[in-house]
Amino acid sequence: MKIRKAEKKDIPRILELLGQVLQIHAEIRPDIFIPGTIKYTLCELTELLKQEDKPVYVAVDEDDLCMGYAFCQLREQPFSTNMVSFKSLFIDDLCVDKQARGQHIGESLFEYVKQQAKELGCYEVTLNVWTGNTSAEHFYEKMGMKTKERQMEYIL
């Protein structure tokens, strides 16, 4: 397994994996997510891969086939004037092909993202997990992540 920045040739496979993630989210939150859709269009994904502050990393097998990805965003803190200034790397989305889960691909991707964050001078790596996605919660806790803040909602 090799991890590298995503390239244009990876787009069809990434789109496939985006569908897998959306399905998980649609099962957890059918009130928000529309089954059978994906987060990015082909054009949006093509443009996203060109953005330096939003790196996309892929885990590829020996045939250079994308088996998982991590969409990241480099963020500058603070969001207000009362916080110390620092950089963070936000994992917007991390996915491993459902057929390849259990092979430590997610762990490898996460460790790679942590290393990239260090090289970029980041203070932290952050992400959001939907309530109900217990497998993701357990995975990230196993990787050493802790809850930083909780966002709550009241549905009208």
From TrEMBL:
Keyword list, A-Z: Acyltransferase, Transferase
GO MF annotations, alphabetized: N-acetyltransferase activity
Species the sequence originates in: Gallintestinimicrobium propionicum
Cited SUPFAM superfamilies: Acyl-CoA N-acyltransferases (Nat)
N-acetyltransferase domain residues: 1-156
PROSITE patterns named among the record's database cross-references: GNAT
Superkingdom of this protein's organism: Bacteria
Name by which UniProt lists this protein: GNAT family N-acetyltransferase
PANTHER family reported for this sequence: DIAMINE N-ACETYLTRANSFERASE, GH14572P-RELATED
InterPro entries for the chain: Acyl_CoA_acyltransferase, Diverse_Substrate_AcTransf, GNAT_dom
